[in-house]
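Researcher: For the annotation table, I need structure tokens for IS110 family transposase. Please keep the output clean. Sequence:
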Amino acid sequence: MDILIERACGMDVHKDSITACTMTPEGKEIQTFSTKTVFLLQLIDWIKKHGCTHVAMESTGVFWKPIVNLLEAEDIDFLVVNAQHMKALPGRKTDVKDAEWIAQLLRHGLLKASFIPNRYQRELRELVRYRRSIIEERARQHNRIQKVLEGANIKLGSVVSDIMGVSSKDMLHAIAEGEEDPEKLASFARRTMKKKKDELELALRGYVNPHQRMMLKTILGHIDFLTEQIERLDQEVAQRVISDQEDIERLDSIPGIATRMAEQILAEIGTNIKEQFPSAAHLCSWAALVPGHNESAGKRKSSKGKKGNKYLKSALTEAAHSVGASKNYLGAMYRRTLARKGRKRAAVVVAHAMLRIAYYLLTRKEMYVDLGEDYFDKQKLGAIVRNSVRRLETLGYNVTISEVS
């Protein structure tokens, strides 16, 4: 095979050590470095000393990040390669050391780089992902409050729709502070909740002991802290994406996607998606929103979907569930798939459609235009008419159809 890269370096990256192999016309050299910053700087100097123009490493956990940051600063081309892609390449896997094997593949141009966004987007991703984890943690704390109330036989969740709403929160703080009178607790009801005052008095009559009051006070304090952190992260993210506001508005126009979700999509796929993903199909495959492919002798076999960007997939799946009852094109698609394949597959199908729509909106610089809830009915108008006539005839009716003039 022809050598495409004259001076290349391959790295086997671990938590505490890095084995690096340089291959140049002068020969091959292998060294091991610690992952501490001082030794990483020595690694970069060693690479520059050998005149390596390209560096490749496997994408193992998050251990590649500090190396990539330094390589970026020195303007050295790098490839972070998917381990699955490495395994698929034919050759000696056991006889050759990992770093040397990576360097050989790099020199011959056989490695395909994973999508590594620039530093700005990596930082934005980190913020958005952390915000999502805090929101999920807050939801867990809400469930924990419900568990504590059930232990005290307080049935507040049976009366109110949101146990952490304004009225409910005042009642919970009062319970945590020692208030036991159901009438006084029910008096915290506001607006439409006042109509349920009698039900609230019955629901708030329970047996709350000091342990449960302490638990409520602790959990409520934790929720308040998490809410403050989420608001702080919201402000930071909004400040960072201020230059991409038009793209966020385009994504926000898709049913089921709000501002936070739009920010997360943008953080995961970036703004210049045409450069990284040549088509919408490539993007959906990268996000693992496509079915697995296992075909042999012309027969399709059952197969799991491939692994992809789990953060983007879970966010879009959540958005897909939210449009299930909506009177629009995506809602109709969800219900149509739900009837045949169930909730989980319906969510994946709609999430796939959302990501394709997002790709076209961002690349064409357009706003979303809904096709309408009756889109699929119009597509199959003839079949609907025939089925309707057949059903009526089986019930004993003579049916005559004429178009409305």
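Researcher: And a one-line annotation?
Model: The longest helix spans residues 119-151.
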